[in-house]
Amino acid sequence: MTVIAAQLQAVHARIAAACLAAGRSTDSVQLLAVSKTFGPEAVRTAHAAGQMAFGENYIQEAVDKMALLADLPLQWHCIGPIQSNKTRLVAAHFQWAQTVDRLKIAQRLSEQRPDRLPPLQVCLQVNVDGGLTKSGVSPDELPALAQAVAALPRLQLRGLMCIPDPQEDAEAMRAVFLRARALYDALRAHGLPLDTLSMGMSGDLEAAIAAGSTMVRVGTAIFGGRSSVK
């Protein structure tokens, strides 16, 4: 067994234990392997161990990597900032865009999504803990943005994504994640058919799952530290 395969197995075990503790089914949480800065061979190794979905922060790096992995049936998620000059690349190459936080970006993705491809799956990034320098739509502006994005063609709004700052302990972290869960539940209560709450990473996936996460984004615990490219 490769190191990556063993670490993937360990992450799946953590997810299963967290689901058990929360009284949830193990298959209610999807693992997104965050492969940013790691080369195509690391992705191939993870795929050989059963991983299908990969998250990338750097759009051009991701597109170059996709070209080298075109023989594999992978699902690619954009989880980094999306600037206006990169929307065409995201629309043409990714299956998911998890970091939409402005209507302008959503409109460009909708307009630039090729007709030959299925709708781009979208999560709205919400700034759930109010950091002034962080990306994400504010909770107050979220409902209007969600309704507007849901109405756009060539996109399918799936849910919310957040990247809160670390907290002093797991319970405080869970409380922040519960704010995102409340926003998600409120949108569903207003008729939006959402099914994805993307939150939790290597260091806090247990707190996220306890709060209702349906997708955890894990990089370091699978691929190791990011000081070197694999």
How would you characterize this protein structure?
Helices cover 42% and strands 17% of the residues. It is an alpha/beta fold and 230 residues long. The protein has one domain: Alanine racemase (TIM Barrel). It has an eight-stranded parallel β-sheet with strand order 7-6-5-4-3-2-1-8. α4 crosses α5 and α7 packs parallel to α8. It is globular and about 45 Å long.
Per-chain topology:
Blueprint: H1 3-22, E1 30-34, H2 40-48, E2 53-56, H3 59-68, E3 75-78, H4 87-93, E4 96-100, H5 103-112, E5 120-125, H6 142-150, E6 155-161, H7 170-189, E7 196-198, H8 205-211, E8 215-218, H9 220-223
Parallel strand pairs: 1-2, 1-8, 2-3, 3-4, 4-5, 5-6, 6-7
Helix pairs in contact: 1-8, 4-5, 7-8
Top CATH class: Alpha Beta
Strand content: 15-25%
Instruction: Assign the CATH architecture.
Output: Alpha-Beta Barrel
Whole-number tally of structural domains? 1
Which H/E pattern describes the elements? HEHEHEHEHEHEHEHEH
Radius of gyration: 17 Å
Count of helices?
Answer: 9
At the fold tier of CATH, the topology name is TIM Barrel
What's the story with the biggest beta sheet? 8 strands, parallel
The name of the CATH superfamily reads Alanine racemase
Structural class: alpha/beta
Distance between the termini: 17 Å
Mean pLDDT: 95
Number of strands: 8
**How do the strands of the widest beta sheet line up side by side?**
7-6-5-4-3-2-1-8
Helix content: 40-55%
Low-confidence stretches: none
Overall geometric form: globular
Structure summarized in a few sentences:
Helix content is 42%, strand content 17%. The chain has helices spanning 3-22, 40-48, 59-68, 87-93, 103-112, 142-150, 170-189, 205-211, 220-223, and strands at residues 30-34, 53-56, 75-78, 96-100, 120-125, 155-161, 196-198, 215-218. The longest helix has 20 residues, at 3-22.
